[in-house]
What does this fold into?
Amino acid sequence: MSAYDTNRALAQTGFAGAATKLFAAVAAWNDARATRSALSRLSDRALDDIGLTRSDIDRIAAGR
It folds into this structure.
């Protein structure tokens, strides 16, 4: 039995491609901002419970 991928994204060029990349960059920035904000609101004890310290917040928010 063969499988075919029928959900391929078309490569976008020009304005549409640039707009798509810009939207993706803004969405990634907003996700990192929301993650950083949520982790910053946690107490040191709560961060310790999940194995993090305050110095880890920026690294985690950046996805590294």
